Predict the structure.
Amino acid sequence: MEAGARLVLRTSAALRPGERVLIVVDEGTRRVGDAFALAARALGADPVLASIAPRAKDGDEPPEPIGAAMQGSDLILLATGRSLTHTHARRAANRAGARVISMPGVTEDTLRDGGLSTDWTALHELVRRTARRLRDAREVRLTSAAGTDLTFRVEGREWIAEDTGLCAKKGAFTTLPAGEIFVAVVEGTAEGRLVADVYFDEPLIESATAIVSAGHATRIIGASKAVHAMNRGGKDGRAFARFGFGLNPRARVTGPHLEAEKTLGAAHMGFGDNLALGGKIHCGVRVEAILSEVAIEVDGKTLLEKGRLVE
């Protein structure tokens, strides 16, 4: 784990000797925190390891003394079971100039040989290089080994390629594992069959299928939890609204869904809201699906096939 921690500190955080490093963990992630502390010392820092009680849910604030310590740090690693990403304490630390890396649900395997154990400088370049190939894209066709065959339009929409994992500038923030490019799909244009074999609002034991017509899921087989969530948003809750694909070569599609969606060779789909990505749908519902072993064609040219980018 220490080797993976060094990669994060050296290539994502660009840690400099003497910087004030705060590592926040809970009882389930203490060993991960220890690995980061050892790596930070080896790189010339004098880290502080702070253990908090597990939060009840994502977004719950850390204890007040931890929030104060965050504002006095140069680099903060949030390595907790529940996410501290969307907390006032995290935002205040960024405003104070701290660099913050959030790793919700981090596991020892993810750090040892999974999605965290990558060279973030190299991944940054890969994401940006791929994004350049997607400029002015009009139509995407997605297929998968499980049976997906779906087309949709993306013209006029900007591909978002900020999920590179770099956190080197004062006040910067990132979540890890990183390595995904995504876009708001043009509403009403998706047609075909989507077969999710990894995740559909929950981890899947068996594949679930969504038949998509005129941009909406008209029939879903399996994934009853996803159906219930979509229905809360009315018709727009069933709108095929977001598309992304992973570029992280060390991420595992068998890992937690926040890692699986970043896997090279996986695609990440969304139904419901896409307003924040530049789309037009705002219905209060976001339902996610993850597919493995995908192939992607953009305007008739193969971009990704059999888990590798096609140059």
